[in-house]
Amino acid sequence: LVVGSSAQALQKNPTWLFGGRLVGAGVVGLLVLASFDQARVYGAPDNVPLWYDTLEKNPDAWLAHNNLARLLSDRGDYRQAMVHLREAVRIDPSYRPVYGQAELAAGVDAAQRNLHDDAVLHFQHAVELDPESQEAYLHLGRELFLLGRGTEALALWREGGARLPESNALAATLAWAWATHPDPNLRDPQEAVELARQLCGRSQQRDASHLDVLAAAYAAAGAFDEAVRTAREAIAVSGDSADPASRERETRLKLYESGRPYVSP
Fold it and tell me: Which residues, in sequence order, are CB contacts of 127 under 8 Å at separation 6+?
């Protein structure tokens, strides 16, 4: 409409033609510069600048935060990715568990590739996004132990157990660590015995792995008669002598019979 109107006006007033051409050239030049400036946001192969540009115009664009979190995570910039993940969750909280599962999967992948620092970041995000996920607590604690951060791992599992009191997996993991950790400063045999007793009570003394934890806790506390009795009960409950776990319990039983506790390697 503007171009057509301008052309008609210039035809009616030929003396304006030269000036009109200059104005037109100027407008085209400005549009070229604007296009060139806009094109920069499409320059990166992963579109990160595009989504930052979108957020400059609309800070509450859920999709932009979501996509930036994914792309920055792919780049290895997990901390900045989490900033955008939090924003996406703030805008649409219904996606919180979905993001938690995505972070959990990313953490498992990083751990399998021995990228343990990256795995910790992913699992920390998973716990933050979905505090009801026992898998996130378990994985994060294991990675912290691998990195020599045992105190943090035990505190995390205690926190997870308090939040998820019905989680047998968290209770068993924490009790086992308190009973068998190679660092004596991190062992707490009495706490291990108490927690393992609760665990076995919930499973009505019918879970071999829970009984195995209780036996290790008794041994750590120096109650070797109880450890031997409980270890034999665990072996009897499992019933499969060919099972590798049963063979490991047999080995531990011999330690308890000789008056020695089991210490994790």
Answer: 133, 136, 137, 140, 156, 160
Tell me the three state secondary structure of residue 43. Answer: coil
Cα(213)–Cα(193) distance, rounded to whole angstroms?
9
- Which tens digits make up the pLDDT trace of 2-49? 888 888 888 888 777 777 778 888 889 889 888 887 777 777 677 888
| Separation CA 61–CA 249 (nearest Å) | 55
pLDDT in tens, 41-100: 777 677 888 899 899 999 999 999 988 988 888 887 877 888 888 888 889 888 888 888
Q: Please give the Cα distance from 4 to 207 (Å, whole number).
A: 85
Identify the CA nearest to 183 among candidates 224, 213, 220.
220
Handedness of CA 252, 258, 262, 265 (dihedral sign): negative
* Among 169, 153, 170, 152, residue whose Cα is nearest residue 161: 170
| Euclidean distance between CA atoms 212 and 209, whole angstroms | 5
Residues 6+ apart with CB under 8 A from 230: 211, 214, 215, 218
Handedness of CA 166, 170, 173, 174 (dihedral sign): negative
CA–CA separation, 168 and 119 (whole Å): 24
pLDDT of 26: 87
Match 């498992």 to its residue by tokens: 108
Predicted model pTM? 0.70
Give Rg (Cα) of the chain: 31
Question: What confidence category does residue 209 fall into, taking pLDDT thresholds of 50, 70 and 90?
Answer: very high
